[in-house]
Amino acid sequence: MLWEIGVLAAVAVLLVFLGLPLLSLLLRVPPAELWARLLAPASLTALRLSLVTSLAATVAIAALGVPAAYLLATRRFPGKRVVEVLLELPMVLPPTVAGVGLLLAFGRAGLAGKALAALGLSIPFTTLAVVLAQVFVACPFFVSAATAGLREVEARYADAAATLRATPGYAFRRVLLPLALPSVLAGGAMSWARALGEFGATIMFAGNLPGRTQTLPLAVYIGFQTDLQSAVALAVILLILSFTVLLGLRLAHRPPRLPWVGRAPGDAR
Amino acid sequence: MRASRVARWLGVPVCLALVAAGRPARGPGAAAPSAPSRTLTVFAAASLSRAFSQLGDTLRHRTPGLEIAFNFAGSQQLVLQIQQGAAADVFASADLRWMAAVRDSGLVDGTPTVFAHNRLIVVTPAAAPIAGLQDLARPGVKLVLAADAVPVGRYARQALSNLSRLPGFGADFDRRVLANVVSNEEDVKAVVAKVQLGEADAGIVYVSDVGAEVAPHVKRIDVPDAANVVADYPVAVLRRARDPEDARAFVALLLSPSGQAVLRANGLVGTAGD
User: Fold this and answer.
1) DSSP strand E in B119-226: where?
2) Which of A34, A46, A114, B201 could form a disulfide with B142 if both were Cys (CB 3.0 to 4.6 A apart)?
3) Is the ipTM of this complex over 0.95?
4) What is the mean pLDDT of residues B176-193?
5) Which helix H or strand E contains A258, and what residues bound it?
6) Are strands B181-185 and B143-146 parallel, antiparallel or unpaired?
7) Using CA atoms, how far apart are residues A105 and B114, in angstroms rounded to an integer?
């Protein structure tokens, strides 16, 4: 009895703590005004830029992250622990520090940047820089979720596929990945949300210019310093957007049901 | 088994010893343990960081039991924090506009006083991608300014507009220069940093920002007096101050000859007649 009460109390505290700031934001701006501010050119520009860059970043993260997760989940090799830590590092690095690092690496005067500049490619202050900053900070979320999901898939399914003469690539595509899909999609959603909300590394590496590098979080932050109402309206838009997409993803995906086992990895108990 | 248990019991005192060693030692002039320590909170524009830190040390040495906490940021950001209830005792802004905003919110105790001035300068990385003011309008130049809401950002845009009216620059000079802006930073120090790192071709900052550490990495391009903007820095004690006495002492220090000397040493211009 005490345990049940404790659990409910903890959840209640958590929900109130997380919900109150969100509720305060929503109550601050009346819906009519919200709509009007959303349609302002500056807001639409920031919104479009945020959506385009975060989606591009998520696609890049998935393209690179899925193979990386496969390697980490199924193979052993010397130095594996170091690789795992390296891939998790951006999660604990303050975003501004990440931004400075990116600048020192890929900036005009940077380590790799000098070579890129010789080729005529200058990354800071461009939309590409925004995507790169988002990829940097968001990819650990995807890789760790995807790795955990792939690891959970029992080895005997891959073994069974091998005995049926499937190549590793085929086995991955048709057996492992579908079974691990809930975790992979969850990782994708998390990294997209993180990319959408990215601020510190963006303003440091990409700068702040409307239309080119001013994403929604930057617009909110700079907006706060002049026009509180507009900034709160933008913040609410960001909030509603994230909520809708995350909820949609959760509703859209049903874990696969295999006919010969009781439950699939990723199912709630 | 035995070794690991020994290690575990040793670990506790070792950790405690490390923590104790890491605590800052009490310096000279620290208050006797029995005197309660007060904290004065000063919100100041980013361009004042060096000068105010030095003045803070001076006040701390003069006043036993006083600690001073600084919050340096773009003036616009500080105003928002103050209006939303931040516990500040003193506010020093980089322009009259933001001080007026705080005063209009009824948060100022008494009248603000201008204690310093500043002027603008154009900086470019040491490799000097641009040679003169005219180059700012050259297509492809990467110019970094502070956002318009930041005092130095607005001053910079004013100066560019002033330059457009001078012979030799052309009436559309400011428009062409503003087309080269690649980023609107949140405070002046971020502008300095981007130029210093060589990422921007040029930035417009305060004269006081090109101090001893920055100077070797950048080249200065002067703005003619006819176009330059004089920045006025007002300071005020805030109505919500928890420590009005020390707050007034800090403001008095700013206006005193020794305080003005520190400001001048950091590249700011003192107020005449003090």
Assistant:
1) 120-125, 143-146, 181-185, 202-206, 218-221
2) B201
3) no
4) 94
5) none
6) parallel
7) 43
Residues composing chain A: 269
Closest Cα in chain A, distance from residue B127 (Å): 11
Calpha distance A208→A129 (Å, rounded): 11
- List, by residue range, all CATH 3.40.190.10 domains of chain B: 37-116+233-270, 120-221
Q: Return the CATH superfamily for domain B37-116+233-270.
A: Periplasmic binding protein-like II (3.40.190.10)
A177-189: per-residue pLDDT in tens? Answer: 888 888 899 899 9
Amino acid at A78: P
Instruction: Tell the CATH superfamily of the A31-252 domain.
Output: MetI-like (1.10.3720.10)
Which residues in chain A have their CB less than 8 angstroms from residue B144's CB?
Answer: 207
Overall average pLDDT of the A244-250 stretch: 82
Q: Determine the residue of chain A that is closest to B180 in CA distance.
A: A209
User: Which chain B residues are closer than 8 Å to A228 by Cβ?
Assistant: 80
Q: Residues B196-233: pLDDT tens digits?
A: 999 999 999 999 999 888 999 999 999 999 999 999 99
pTM of the model: 0.81
- State residue A221's pLDDT score: 87
CB-nearest partner of B142 from A109, A125, A224: A125
Q: Which residues of B touch chain A, with CB atoms under 8 Å apart? A: 74, 76-77, 79-80, 125, 142, 144, 147, 149-150, 181-186, 194, 197-199
Question: What pLDDT shows up at residue B35?
Answer: 55
- Which of B78, B180, B197 is the best substitution to test chain A (most A C-beta atoms within 10 A)? B197
pLDDT at A254: 58
With bands split at pLDDT 50, 70 and 90, how would you rate the model's confidence at A138? very high
pLDDT at B27: 46
Does the pLDDT of residue B34 top 60, yes or no?
no
With tokens 């998790």, the residue in question is A88
- Domain ranges for chain A, please list them: 31-252
Tell me whether A107 touches chain B (CB under 8 Å): yes
Amino acid at B111: T
CA A134, chain centre distance (Å): 8
Interchain pair B76, A225: CB under 8 A: yes
Class of the CATH domain delimited by B120-221: alpha beta
Which of A107, A125, A222 is facing B149, going by the closest CB pair?
A222
In 3D, which of B116, B130, B100 has the Cα closest to residue B203? B130
Please list the residues that pair with B120 across neighbouring strands: B206
